[in-house]
C-alpha cells in the first residue's frame, strides 16, 4: 500500500510500504477513507520533534474495517469506524476511568513499528478498546465533522473541560489553530456566555466568530475565569496564565515544546491559578461528541480549509507550515 | 508597645514600637494573646525573601478586641478573635467567592506600614471582613488548636482541597513541616483512606502518624491520586509531580522559592496532571474548621512543640531555623 513517511525535516514523502495484516487476535485492519494533517505533525516536519528517518506519520483517520482478529467483538468487516489519535486496550484501570491516553498498552499512530494515519490502511491494535463504530449510512456532509473528532475537536473539548468552562462563564482562547478554534466551539457547547479569542488572522478569527467567539482581540486581555491554551509554546503559556482571573484555571492542550519557563509558578501561587489538561483522552469524549455531530448540533468542519489526495500530502504539510492552510483533510 | 521586627538576615529583635490606633472607621485594635512563628517567616529570616530593615513580622495571631471604629459591626471590645494571615475587605467579588487572598484591599500582616502578628497589639483593617469571633468561654486547651487555624491548618486544608482529596482515596504529602503535617490531618478529615507521608525525621513522622498517616516513607513513592506539596522548593515540586498518578492532581501551598524548573510541563502534559493551589484563603475555611476544633474533632496543636514569650522570639526563630523546633507558639 502507499503511506506517508517522514524522511527528515521538511521531507515528507508518499511511499510504497508493506500492507498491514492482523498480528494479534485483538487487531483490526482498517482501510482509510479520510485522514488529516495535524498542527502537531508540523513539529516533526520542522525538525523540532525527533523522528526516525522513514517513520510513518499521521494520527487522525476514519475508514472501513477490512479484517478483524478472532477476539474482536465490537466491529466487523465492512463497518465504518473512527480512531482516536492513540490506541488503547479499553480494559485497564486508566481506560475504565476514561484516561485512555495513559493506557499502559497504548500507543501513538506512526510510532516505530506501527502504521500512521496518513496512508491507505492501518493495523489497529486493541480494536475493541480503540475504534468507535459509525453509522453505515453516515451522510457525506457529516464525514468532515466526524473526522475532526479523531483529535482536534476532542482536544479542544479537553481544554475546555480542564479549564472548568461553566455555563454563563467567560472563556479566553490562546491559539488560533484548529484546536484553539475547536476550543471556542467546545466552550460554546458547554454554555460559556462570553468567549474571547486572541488572534490577528482574519480568516481564522472569522471561523472563531462562526464557532461562537463573542470577542476577538489581538492582544492579551485580563481576568477570565477559564483560559484555553492551544499552542504549546512558553510564550502562549505565559499569556494564558497572565490573563486568567485569580482563582481561575488554564486548560492546556498545546503539546509543550520548550521548557517550563512559561509557567510562572509564583504568579500562579499568589493568584491561586490552576493548571490542568494535557494530552486529550479523545476516545473518552468520542461517544458524546459523535452523538452531537450526528444530531447536526456540532460541526467543527470549517477547520478543514484544504482537501487533498494522498499524493498531495507533502504539499499539505507545506501549506500548513506556511500558514496558507489551517488544516488539511486527506480523502482516499 | 513591644513587637518583633526584622533588622536583617538572622537579626530578629523585640523592640518598642508605636501603639496601634484606629485610623479608619472599619479598623479594630486587637490585643494579642497568642501568636506564632511560621515556616514561611524563615525565608525572611534567612534573607531569601527581602524585607525592609525594621519591618514588622508575624502573620498568625489571636487576641482580644480593644477598640473598634464606627463602622465595625461584627466584633466589639472585649471579644476574643482570630485573624487569618491576610486581611481582606470581606465585600468585594473575590471575598464573596471565598478567595479572600485576592482581595484588592487586602494585605499581609507585617507589610510596610502595618503591624505584625508577633507583637503585643495589632491594628486590623477591615475588621468585619477579616476577624472571626471566638467563644468568650474558649477553653484554655483549645487555644492552641484554634491558633493553628490562622495559617497552617487552613493552608494544609487548602492543599488537600486543591489536590482533590476524596473519601477513600490515596494521598501523599511532600513536606514534613507544620503545613505538611496539617495536610495529613486535612486529608484524614476529608476521608482519605491511605495517607503516605514522605519524611525521615522521627519526631515529625510521629506527629504524621498521630494525624492519620498510614505510611511513612523516606523516598518518593509512585502513583498517588492526590499529592500535597508543602515545601515550596523546585525539588519538592519535582517530587510531587513525579509521584502523582496519571490524571491526578498536585495541591501546592509551599510558597515558591526558586523558579518554575520543578514544574515538568511535559510530564504533566503526557500524564494529565493538574497543578492547583496557591496562597490559602484561610479566612474562607475558618468557620468550618473552627466548628470542628470547638467540637473537639480537630486538633492540629501537636505542631506547636515550643512555647515561648515575646522576649524569646529571636530564640524561637533560631530553633526553627536549626530544625530544633517544628513550630513555636508565642503567649503574651
From TrEMBL, chains A, B:
Cofactor(s) listed: Zn(2+)
GO molecular function, one term: zinc ion binding
Domain of life per record: Bacteria
Record domain Alcohol dehydrogenase-like C-terminal: where: 178-288
Keywords, sorted A to Z: Metal-binding, Oxidoreductase, Zinc
Domain Alcohol dehydrogenase-like N-terminal: 25-134
SUPFAM superfamilies: GroES-like, NAD(P)-binding Rossmann-fold domains
InterPro entries in the record: ADH-like_C, ADH-like_N, ADH_Zn_CS, GroES-like_sf, NAD(P)-bd_dom_sf
Pfam families from the UniProt entry: ADH_N, ADH_zinc_N
Entries under Gene3D superfamilies matching the protein: Medium-chain alcohol dehydrogenases, catalytic domain, NAD(P)-binding Rossmann-like Domain
Family: Belongs to the zinc-containing alcohol dehydrogenase family.
Matching PANTHER family: DEHYDROGENASE, ZINC-CONTAINING, PUTATIVE (AFU_ORTHOLOGUE AFUA_2G02810)-RELATED, ZINC-TYPE ALCOHOL DEHYDROGENASE-LIKE
Protein name per its UniProtKB record: Zinc-dependent alcohol dehydrogenase family protein
Organism per entry: Yinghuangia soli
Amino acid at each position: 500500500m502507499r503511506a506517508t513517511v517522514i524522511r527528515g525535516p521538511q521531507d515528507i514523502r508518499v511511499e510504497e510500504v508493506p500492507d498491514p495484516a492482523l498480528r494479534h487476535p485483538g487487531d483490526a485492519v482498517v482501510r482509510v477513507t479520510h485522514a488529516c494533517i495535524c498542527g502537531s505533525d508540523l513539529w516533526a516536519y520542522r525538525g523540532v520533534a525527533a523522528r526516525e528517518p522513514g517513520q510513518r506519520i499521521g494520527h487522525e483517520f476514519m475508514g472501513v474495517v477490512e479484517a478483524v482478529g478472532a477476539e474482536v467483538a465490537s466491529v466487523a468487516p465492512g463497518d465504518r469506524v473512527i480512531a482516536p489519535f492513540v490506541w488503547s486496550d479499553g480494559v485497564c484501570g486508566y481506560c475504565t476511568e476514561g484516561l485512555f491516553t495513559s493506557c499502559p498498552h497504548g500507543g501513538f499512530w506512526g510510532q516505530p513499528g506501527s502504521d500512521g494515519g496518513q496512508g491507505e490502511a492501518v493495523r489497529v491494535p486493541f480494536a475493541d478498546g480503540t475504534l468507535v463504530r459509525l453509522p453505515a449510512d453516515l451522510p457525506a456532509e457529516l464525514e468532515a465533522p466526524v473526522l475532526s473528532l479523531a483529535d482536534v475537536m476532542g482536544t479542544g473539548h479537553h481544554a475546555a473541560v480542564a479549564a472548568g468552562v461553566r455555563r454563563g462563564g467567560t472563556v479566553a482562547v490562546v491559539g488560533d489553530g484548529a484546536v484553539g478554534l475547536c476550543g471556542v466551539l467546545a466552550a460554546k457547547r458547554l454554555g460559556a456566555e462570553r468567549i474571547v479569542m486572541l488572534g490577528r488572522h482574519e480568516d481564522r478569527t472569522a471561523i472563531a466568530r462562526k464557532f461562537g467567539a463573542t470577542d476577538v482581540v489581538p492582544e492579551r486581555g485580563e481576568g477570565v475565569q477559564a483560559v484555553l491554551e492551544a499552542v504549546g509554546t512558553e510564550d502562549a503559556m505565559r499569556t494564558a496564565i497572565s490573563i486568567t482571573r485569580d482563582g481561575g484555571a488554564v486548560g492546556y492542550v498545546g503539546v509543550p515544546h520548550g521548557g517550563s519557563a512559561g509557567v510562572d509558578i509564583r504568579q500562579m501561587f499568589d493568584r491561586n491559578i490552576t493548571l490542568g489538561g494535557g494530552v486529550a483522552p479523545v476516545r473518552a469524549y468520542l461517544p458524546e461528541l459523535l452523538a452531537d455531530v450526528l444530531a447536526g448540533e456540532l460541526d467543527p468542519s470549517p477547520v478543514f480549509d484544504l482537501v487533498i489526495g494522498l499524493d498531495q500530502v507533502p504539499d499539505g504539510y507545506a501549506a500548513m507550515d506556511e500558514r496558507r492552510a489551517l488544516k488539511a483533510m486527506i480523502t482516499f
